[in-house]
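Translate sequence into structure tokens.
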Amino acid sequence: MKKDQTANTVQTGTQSKKVSTYFQRLVIVLIAVIAVIWTIEPVSAGSVKVVTRFGGVTGRVLQPGLNFIIPFVESTRQINTKYLIYETMRDDDRQTSGSDYTDAPVDTNTEDGQRVNIFYTIRFSVDSTRATWVTERFGTEEALVDKIVRAESRSVARTVPSNYTAEELYVGTGKEKIAQLIADGIKQKLADNGILLDSVLVREVDFNDQYTQSIEAKQIEAVKVETAKNIAARAEFEKQATIRAAEAQAEAQRLQSLTITEQYARLEWIKRWDGKLPTYMTGDAQNLIQLPR
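Result follows.
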């Protein structure tokens, strides 16, 4: 009996050890799987990730695709390398805008003191080769845009219109001039801070209503003056044409009178004669034209 009890006890202990060993192995496998999963760091297209270790930048940049990091020791910060849009616009438009970053328009003065609002768009991207430097200096994309793109573009946009009169900006290629000068003014500064400038577009130069009305009235008057000039020029042209035609006709008559002979005059008289002799004749009969026989 005791032998049976001892055998059962040994068997039970063996089974318990097997269960314990199986559980331990399962835990080890789970830990290993979790560790492997935590080492995988996927990077989506249009971005890179900067690897940090205990908060410090390591200098390693992960490209789009599957990458590996040391779990619990390393972490990453994502940098967007797709095109980003910074725009200045009215408050009502900012609610429905699809731009990445929006801001109020730049309020400034022209050379002749006219108040204007500049509405512009900047398209740019972060240089992936400078991702480590950008992370060290600015930390986040938002800080980079605020401290460089926003600050630099608004500073330049505020000074550019002071080189032009309001009328120069209102008509012609005023918006294109401002856009080019903004681009020229910020391109190098952005490049120095890891930003690639793609384009600058000035969508609108907004004047106050009173000035707009005065400019439009001035343009209408200019059109009227130009129209009057065209009418006067046409009248003068027609006058000179009439004079030239009259002079030409007089000259032709003068030349014709020099070439008329007695024989030619008789021929013209015969062409116009209706075949009837005059009923009454007065004066000297020698003035009659003698018909040839």
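Note: Residues 84-207 form a domain with the Tetrahydropterin Synthase; Chain A fold (CATH 3.30.479.30).
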